[in-house]
Each structure stands twice: as structure tokens, then as C-alpha cells.
Amino acid sequence: MAKRGLGMDVLTAARQRITRVFNDFPVVYVSFSGGKDSGVLLELAAAEARARGRRLGVLIVDLEAQYQLTEDYLRQMLKRHEDVIDLYWVALPMNLRNAVSQFQPQWMCWEPGLEESWVRTRPPEAIGDESFFDFYERGMEFEDFVPKFGDWYSRRNGGRMTACLVGIRSQESLNRYRTIASTRKQRHDGLAWTTMITAKSFNAYPIYDWRTEDIWTFYSRERVPHNQVYDRMHQAGLTLHQMRLCQPYGDDQKRGLWLYQLIEPHTWGMVAARVQGAEFGARTAREIGNVSGRIKVTKPDGITWEQFAQNLLASMPAPAAEHFRTKIAVFIRWHQKNNGFVDGVIPDDGPMDKINPSWKRIVKMLLSYDYWCKEFAMAPPKSKNSYEAYKKRMRIKREEWGLRGTV
Length: 407
Description:
Helix content: 40-55%
Number of domains: 3
Low-confidence stretches: 287-294
Mean pLDDT: 85
Strand content: 5-15%
Structural class: alpha/beta
Radius of gyration: 23 Å
CATH class of the largest domain: Alpha Beta
């Protein structure tokens, strides 16, 4: 789909979109992470709310393992706009991905009983009471919490139509571009930069067409506060497009673990001790640019790629091995149906592209510990419950496919 210009600068367009949101929705809140994009969005939304004499909700989902500089910036912005905002700073136990350990593939932020190991002390203004939200369950996923909060916030405000302003930009990834461009989603009044979440709540993406350069131009020209952690990242040698904030142990985020050692050494000690594998992950990312696996993969002499894959699976903890065996079975089954590989017999070697299956590609996926198998165009589950249901369903399917004992 070709991009079409609007005949105006992105700042003017974003302000017009935010005005439209406030016109159409009696309840509006911002999802604020402390990052550069959500910082711009909060600044613009607060200005609109102030001009209208309206209140603006602010949702902060605090995932514990973050820079102290980020917490400082959160407080700076909350103080700056305290006259118009209603704050929901959430610091509840949630399950998160840990991509630097096969033995602990998930970790729980703010886990009760481990207070002495927490990376940071829970902020005093944060919501830590697990009974505060009627929908909350201990260990739920971030992706499950956020839409349910939108529904809860609508109900809290009399069931009125509610909009959540989200600072995602289509430049950042193909998935984010699809979020905007999808013609299959339900929109508000046909606006592509909105997505229906529930009957009463929508997401809106007013800065979806901003480039990274636009973000920093805004901060420079408007002279508004920004998170100082980006200055430290720049000093560490990162480019504008490499500087991102998120929980440090994720599949993509693990590559930035080493930055904690440079930016906040005092925080790094807690980050390294919080989950298994963090120290190894940071060291390997610094030395070879990735936590595990390389673009070019090799195997020991005298064995096939399939045998190497089976050896790797046998060396893993049982839950991780079973997880990957299921994903490999799905991969093989898809090529059985679509590429004519019968009885699960796929080539041992082959080109490392996205089309041709081979056990060599499977080995690369295992070595890189691509937990959700993005290499095979697979996606993470939407929630913990959906993943549990998926595992039960796949145990049955693997028996039907005759692949239970193959992988």
C-alpha cells in the first residue's frame, strides 16, 4: 500500500487527530511508558486537555526492571501536568518473557516474596494492591492487562466511550505498520489510525506517521523535558534508531542488556541478579552482538543437522524442549501441507531463506533461542490462558499428524 502525503507537517496532523479524539470521546487516557514517543504524546494530549478544561487519564504499567532515569522522567512529567491528569501507575505482578535463560523462560515483575531481589522499590504512588482491579489475576500478561484496563476505565467513567492514546509509529516495525494499515480491524468512524478494542474502548495512534527524526525535532523545538537515558544511550554510541526503552530480558530487548552497565551501573547489579542468564546475555551481546546464535551456523562433524537439532533439544530443560518440539511440529506440518513433504521428511540442509524448510533452519532457530519462532513466521500467544489452551490442543494435533515421536 503506497503512502500518501496529507499536505501538512506531522505535528499539525497529530494535533488535529488529538483534537478529533477529544471531540468524539468523553473519556481519554494516555498509555505512558516514559519513552520518547509516549512522552511526545503525553505533552500534546495534556495541552489539549488543558485547553478544554478536561481531565486526562495516564496509564503507566511499571514492569520493575527499568532505569532509574526513566522513573525520574515519569515523575517529572506527572508533576508538569498534574493539573489535568488522573494517574494510574500500575506495579502489579505480571509474567514477562526472559529470553536469556532456558531454565527460566518467564519471570514475574514485582513478584510477592522476592521484595529484596526487586530491581527497584515499588513507587509509593503505584497501585500494588492486587484487588484494585476487578479483572486482574496474578501473573497475567502485559498484553492481556492493557485492553482489560481500557474496558475497566470505561466502566469506571459510567460506561462512556473511551479512547486510549498510544505512541506507536509505523516506521518502527512491520507489525506496527500493519496495526495502522489493516483493513480487517474495526475502526472509529473509518479512521485508519484507530482500532476498536472493546465495544466501548478504542486505541488511537496520533503520531503513527512520525519518523524518529520528527520525535527529536519536537523535543528540540518545543523545549519540553525528555528522558535523559537517551542522552546516555547516544553517548554510548547508539544511533537515533537504535535507542529504545523496554523491559530488558525480552527476545529483541536482550541485545541492549549491556547498556545497563554503562548507563546505570548501580541498576545493572540488580538487573543481573533478578533473573537467570542476564549476566551471560549482556556479555555475549557485547562481544558478538547477539545473546545466542549467529547469522552463520555450524554443526559438529559427523552428524546431520537433524541429529544436531535433536541433541540441542535433549540438552534443554524439559518444558523448553517440549515447547520447541511443538513449534517444530507445526513448522513441519505446514510444509507437509503446502510444499508436499510427506511423512515429515524435510531436507537436512538447504538455503537459509524464509521459503525452503530444512533442519539447518531449525538448528538456527534453536541456537538463537527464538522462543516464539518468529523465524518461522509464528507469533506469541495473546495471553497466558490462550497459550495453555494452545499446548493442550497441540498435544492432540501432534498425535494426529504422526509427529509426536518425530520431534
